[in-house]
C-alpha cells in the first residue's frame, strides 16, 4: 500500500544522488494525517453512514461496517464508501474497519453525528447547527456603532486529532471596500471544533481595516508537525489567542476618515492549538515602497489615496513539490508584489519575492481578486496563478496574457484530453481582447469570447462539469453569451448560478451554488432545477454581498462529497453544516488528499472567494482510481533529500561588484576590495542582487562569498540558484574595510545559472566583493559562452549486460542498492526503479508499461557506481 509511494521518494533521492534529473512524477506531498471521518447523518429514512477512503489506502481496500457492535455490511473493493442503514437512529453507534490483505484492521468510531434533518425538494438533508460567540458591538471614533456577522471560513486540523476544525473571520457591519472612506470595526478570527467548542479568538486590532480585500488568512500545517498554523497580516495592537499583544497596543494609525496608510505592518504565524503568536516578521513589501500622497505613488499604483496599494491576496502551494509554502501578495491593479514563505516551526523565512513595477511587464495590471497555487503543467511543482498572468514555482514569470484584471477564475482539469490543468478567467477591463477565455497551462488562449464594442465589465464566471452528455467541463460567464463545452460548443443560455459549485448529490457532476441555494443542471431541458433551497429550509444565507458565496465549501468528513457551511440570515450566533442526503456508488479518495483541491480550500477565503476543484477529471478518476502521491505527517516515509556530493577540486574567482539586476549599486568608497569594487545592497528588507553565472559542468560545489559588513548586526541573506533555495547565509558585522568570507553549498547546472542573494533584514545586505566557486570553469556570463557539444555514446562503450529488462533478471557480484534507469536515445531520462538486492541473481521487474515502444539505454548502478550500460529495443 505505502510501498509504491515510498519507493518513488527513494528513487527521487537516488536520481539526485546520481546527478540525474528527476522524472516528471512528483515526490510524495505532505498531507494531513486524517481519521476515517466516519459520520452518521439523519436522512429521515434511517442513517446515512459514510467515511473517507484515505490517500494512504490501496484503491481496492475493503471495509466492514458495524452498528452497535454487530456487523452491518461488508463493503467491496470497488464500492462507494457510504451506506444507508434504514434501521439506524441518531443514537446508533457505528464503527468501520478496513480490510488489508484479507485481514480486518482495528475498528474506528464516529467522528460526528448529524442528528438533525430538514425536508426540502423531496429529500431529507442532514445538518448540524454550531453555536458561535459573537463579538460585542463596537463604537467608532465618530460615534457610529458596528455589529458582527460570520463571514469567510477555512478548515484545518489545528490540534492534530485527525479531524478538521473551522476557522472563522467575523465581519463588522461597517466593513468597507478599499476605495471607500470610513471607520471599520475590529476584525476577529475564531477557531471552532465541529462540536461547537471555541478554541481561541484573535483580535487583529484597530490598525487592520475590515473589508474583503484586507484580511486573507491561510491555515495549513506548514511545518509538518501534524498541527496547522494560521498565517495572516497583523499590526500594532493585534492580540493573539492567549491575550498577548503584538507591537504597540496603544498605537492608532487611522486618519480622520478611518483610512490606514502609516504604521508598521507585520506577518504573523499563530499556533493552531491556542492561537498564540509564534513569530512575527515585517510584511513584505511594506506600504512604504512609495509615499502614498506623492505623484510617484499615483504613477506606480494608479491612485494616491491608498486604494490599490492596500489590496492583498494569499494562497498556499507546494513550491518545492513536497512541503507547503505560504504565499502573500500586495497589489494587482497596477504594481504587484508576491512573496513566498516557508515556516520551520520556529521561523518564517522568505523563499522568494517577485516584483512587477513596470507597466506592460510581468504581473503589472494582471491580477484578479483571488490567488491560487496549483501544479499547472504536471512537473511536480506548484505554479502561482495570479489572474491574467502566472508565476513559476521559483517566483519567475511563467506567462503574461495582457488581458488585465478580473473578478473570477477557476483552475481544474477541464479538458481531460489536454495535458495539464486549464484555467477559466473573466475580465473587468473593457479593452481586453476577450471578456472570458479558456487558457492552457502555459497561458495559451484555447478559445475565448471576444470583447464586444463597446466593451463590458464581466464580473462573474463559472466552470464546472454540470453536463454528463459532454466530456469535460462546461463554462459560462455573466457577459459571455451562454454556456459552452470545453471544446467551445454552445449549449444554450440557461439561467444558472455564476457564483459557486459543490459535489452534493451521488453522481459525478457538479451541482451549482448561489449562497445557500443548490441547483442541479438538467442537460435535457438545459435548465437548472432546485436541489436544496437553503434559505427556505433553514433560513440560511451566503455572505460577501452580490458575490453571495458560502462561508465554506469543503470535503470536511465522510466520503468525497462536500459539505456546505453557511450562516443563519437572522441569527449571527448560528452556523449550519449541511451534508449530502444520499449514498453514492462511486469510490473516490477524500478530496482533501488531492493537493490541488486542498490548497484551493486554503485560499478559498481570499478576497472574492473562488470554489475549489480537484486536480483531476472526476469521472475519469472514478473509472480508474489512482492513489494520490502523498505522505501524511507522522508517517515513516522517505522524502527527497539532495544527497549530491559536494565537489571542490578547483577554483573559480568571480568579481561580484556588478550584478545583472539588483536593488543597490556598485561603489568603491570603502577600501579592501580585490577587483572593481563591491555591490552595496540597499538598506531595505528584500533588497537583492542577481548574477548570471556560466559553468562548464554540472556540479554541487561550495560558493565562498567575500564581504564586509560595517553595521552593528548580522545581515543574513537568502541564497538561491536557478530559483531553488540554497539556504540562508549569515554575514556578521566586520567593519566596512575588513573583509571576511561566508560559504554555502550550491548546485550548478552546465550552462547559464542565475545566482540570487536576497536580504532578510531591513538593513539590507553586506557589501559583496567576490564569489569563489570550488570547481574550475565557472565565470560571469557575458552572453558569448556556450557548452561544448556533447559526445554521443559509441556502441563500443556499452558494457556487458548484467540486467535483462524483459525477464527482470539482474546479476551482481555484491549486495546493495541497485538503481536501474531507462533513457531514450536522445539521452532523456524516462523512468527508473531502485531496489535492495543480494549478491548473485536477483529479480527486479522494471515497469515497462511506462515506456513507449522504442529503443532505450538501460543504465544500472550498484551502491552508487555504474556497473552496466546496455541498449534494448522495443521494450513494450
Folded structure, characterized:
This protein has 876 residues and is mainly beta. Among the domains are: 100 residues, Immunoglobulins (Immunoglobulin-like); 93 residues; 129 residues, Galactose-binding domain-like (Jelly Rolls, Sandwich); 72 residues, Immunoglobulin-like (Sandwich). 5% of the residues lie in helices and 41% in strands. The chain is built from five helices and 67 strands. Strands 10, 11, 44, 45, 46 and 47 form a six-stranded antiparallel sheet that branches. Strand 30 and strand 31 form a beta hairpin. The longest helix is centred in the N-terminal third of the chain and has 15 residues. The protein is globular and about 85 Å long. The protein starts with a helix and ends with a strand.
Which secondary-structure class do the elements indicate? Answer: mainly beta
- pLDDT < 50 stretches: 1-26, 637-641, 790-800
CATH homologous superfamily assignment of the domain at 652-780: Galactose-binding domain-like
Beta-strand percentage range: 35-45%
Distance between the termini: 26 Å
CATH structural fold name of the domain at 652-780: Jelly Rolls
Instruction: Supply the number of helical segments.
Output: 5
From the spread of the alpha carbons, the general shape counts as globular
**Tell me, what is the CATH class of the domain at 652-780?**
Mainly Beta
> Measured on Cα atoms, how large is the radius of gyration?
29 Å
Largest sheet: 6 strands, antiparallel
By CATH, the architecture of the domain at 652-780 is named: Sandwich
Overall pLDDT? 89
State the helicity in percent bands. Answer: under 10%
Tell how many strands the DSSP assignment holds. 67
Amino acid at each position: 500500500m505505502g510501498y509504491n509511494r515510498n519507493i518513488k521518494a527513494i528513487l527521487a533521492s537516488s536520481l539526485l544522488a546520481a546527478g540525474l534529473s528527476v522524472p516528471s512524477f512528483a515526490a510524495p506531498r505532505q498531507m494531513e494525517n486524517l481519521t476515517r471521518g466516519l459520520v452518521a447523518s439523519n436522512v429521515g429514512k434511517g442513517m446515512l453512514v459514510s467515511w473517507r477512503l484515505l490517500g494512504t489506502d490501496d484503491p481496492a481496500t475493503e471495509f466492514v461496517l458495524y452498528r452497535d457492535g454487530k456487523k452491518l455490511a461488508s463493503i467491496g473493493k470497488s464500492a462507494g464508501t457510504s451506506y444507508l442503514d434504514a434501521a439506524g437512529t441518531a443514537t446508533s453507534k457505528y464503527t468501520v474497519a478496513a480490510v488489508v490483505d484479507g485481514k480486518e484492521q482495528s475498528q474506528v468510531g464516529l467522528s460526528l453525528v448529524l442528528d438533525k434533518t430538514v425536508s426540502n425538494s423531496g429529500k431529507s438533508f442532514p445538518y448540524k447547527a454550531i453555536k458561535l460567540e459573537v463579538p460585542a458591538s463596537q463604537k467608532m471614533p465618530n460615534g457610529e456603532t458596528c455589529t458582527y456577522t460570520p463571514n469567510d471560513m477555512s478548515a484545518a486540523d489545528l490540534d492534530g486529532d485527525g479531524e478538521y476544525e473551522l476557522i472563522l473571520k467575523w465581519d463588522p457591519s461597517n466593513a468597507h471596500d478599499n476605495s471607500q472612506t470610513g471607520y471599520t470595526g475590529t476584525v476577529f478570527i475564531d477557531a471552532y471544533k465541529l462540536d461547537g467548542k471555541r478554541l481561541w479568538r484573535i483580535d487583529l486590532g484597530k490598525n487592520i481595516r475590515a473589508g474583503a480585500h484586507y484580511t486573507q488568512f491561510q491555515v495549513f500545517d506548514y511545518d509538518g508537525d501534524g498541527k496547522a498554523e494560521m498565517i495572516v497580516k497583523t499590526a500594532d495592537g493585534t492580540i493573539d489567542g492567549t491575550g498577548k499583544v503584538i507591537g504597540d497596543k496603544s498605537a492608532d494609525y487611522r486618519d480622520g476618515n478611518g483610512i490606514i496608510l502609516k504604521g508598521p505592518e507585520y506577518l504573523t504565524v499563530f499556533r493552531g492549538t491556542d492561537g498564540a503568536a509564534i513569530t512575527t516578521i515585517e510584511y513584505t513589501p511594506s506600504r512604504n515602497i512609495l509615499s502614498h500622497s506623492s505623484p510617484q505613488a499615483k504613477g506606480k499604483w494608479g491612485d494616491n489615496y491608498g486604494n490599490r496599494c492596500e489590496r492583498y491576496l494569499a494562497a498556499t502551494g507546494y513550491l518545492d513539490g513536497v512541503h507547503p509554502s505560504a504565499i502573500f501578495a500586495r497589489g494587482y491593479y497596477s504594481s504587484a508584489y508576491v512573496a513566498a514563505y516557508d515556516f520551520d516551526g520556529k521561523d518564517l523565512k522568505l523563499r522568494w519575492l517577485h516584483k512587477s513595477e513596470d507597466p506592460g511587464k510581468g504581473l503589472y495590471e494582471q491580477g484578479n481578486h483571488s490567488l491560487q497555487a496549483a501544479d499547472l503543467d504536471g512537473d511536480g511543482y506548484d505554479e502561482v496563478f495570479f489572474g491574467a498572468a502566472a508565476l513559476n514555482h521559483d517566483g519567475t514569470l511563467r506567462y503574461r496574457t495582457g488581458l488585465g484584471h478580473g473578478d473570477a477564475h477557476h483552475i481544474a482539469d477541464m479538458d481531460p484530453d489536454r495535458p495539464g490543468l486549464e484555467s477559466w478567467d473573466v475580465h473587468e477591463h473593457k479593452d481586453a481582447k476577450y471578456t472570458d477565455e479558456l487558457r492552457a497551462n502555459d497561458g495559451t488562449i484555447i478559445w475565448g469570447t471576444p470583447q464586444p464594442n463597446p466593451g463590458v465589465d464581466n464580473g462573474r464566471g463559472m466552470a464546472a462539469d454540470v453536463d454528463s452528455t459532454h466530456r469535460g467541463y462546461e463554462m459560462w460567464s455573466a457577459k459571455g453569451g451562454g454556456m459552452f463545452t470545453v471544446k467551445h460548443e454552445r449549449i444554450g443560455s440557461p439561467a444558472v448560478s455564476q457564483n459557486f459549485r459543490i459535489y452534493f448529490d451521488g453522481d459525478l457532476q457538479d451541482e451549482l451554488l448561489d449562497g445557500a441555494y443548490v441547483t442541479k443542471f438538467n442537460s435535457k431541458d438545459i435548465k437548472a432545477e432546485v436541489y436544496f433551497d437553503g434559505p427556505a429550509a433553514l433560513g440560511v444565507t451566503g455572505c460577501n454581498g452580490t458575490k453571495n458565496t458560502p462561508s465554506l465549501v469543503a470535503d470536511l468528513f465522510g466520503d468525497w462529497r462536500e459539505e456546505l457551511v453557511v450562516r443563519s440570515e437572522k441569527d449571527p450566533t448560528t452556523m449550519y453544516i449541511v451534508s449530502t442526503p444520499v449514498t453514492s456508488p462511486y469510490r473516490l479518495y477524500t478530496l482533501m488528499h488531492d493537493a490541488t483541491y486542498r490548497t484551493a480550500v486554503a485560499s478559498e477565503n481570499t478576497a472574492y472567494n473562488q470554489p475549489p476543484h480537484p486536480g483531476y477529471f472526476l469521472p475519469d478518476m472514478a473509472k480508474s482510481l489512482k492513489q494520490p502521491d502523498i505522505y501524511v505527517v507522522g508517517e515513516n516515509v522517505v522524502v527527497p533529500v539532495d544527497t549530491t556530493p559536494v565537489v571542490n577540486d578547483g577554483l573559480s574567482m568571480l568579481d561580484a561588484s556588478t550584478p545583472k539586476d539588483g536593488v543597490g549599486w556598485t561603489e568603491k568608497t570603502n577600501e579592501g576590495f580585490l577587483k572593481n569594487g563591491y555591490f552595496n545592497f540597499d538598506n531595505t528588507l528584500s533588497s537583492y542582487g542577481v548574477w548570471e553565472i556560466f559553468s562548464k559542468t554540472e556540479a554541487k560545489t561550495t560558493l565562498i562569498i567575500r564581504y564586509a559588513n560595517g553595521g552593528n548586526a548580522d545581515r543574513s541573506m537568502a541564497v538561491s540558484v536557478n530559483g531553488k533555495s540554497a539556504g540562508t547565509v549569515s554575514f556578521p558585522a566586520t567593519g566596512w574595510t575588513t573583509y571576511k568570507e561566508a560559504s554555502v553549498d550550491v548546485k550548478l547546472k552546465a550552462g547559464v545559472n542565475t545566482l540570487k542573494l536576497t536580504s532578510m533584514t531591513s538593513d539590507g545586505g553586506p557589501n559583496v566583493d567576490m564569489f569563489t566557486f570550488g570547481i574550475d570553469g565557472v565565470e560571469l556570463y557575458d552572453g558569448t559562452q556556450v557548452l561544448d557539444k556533447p559526445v554521443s555514446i559509441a556502441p563500443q562503450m556499452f558494457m556487458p549486460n548484467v540486467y535483462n529488462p524483459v525477464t527482470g533478471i539482474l546479476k551482481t557480484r555484491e549486495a546493495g542498492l541497485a538503481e536501474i534507469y531507462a533513457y531514450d536515445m536522445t539521452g532523456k531520462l524516462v523512468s527508473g526503479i531502485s531496489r535492495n538486492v543480494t549478491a548473485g541473481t536477483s529479480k527486479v521487474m522494471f515497469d515497462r508499461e511506462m515506456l513507449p515502444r522504442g529503443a532505450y539505454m538501460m543504465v544500472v548502478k550498484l551502491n552508487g557506481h555504474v556497473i552496466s550500460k546496455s541498449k534494448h529495443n522495443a521494450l513494450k
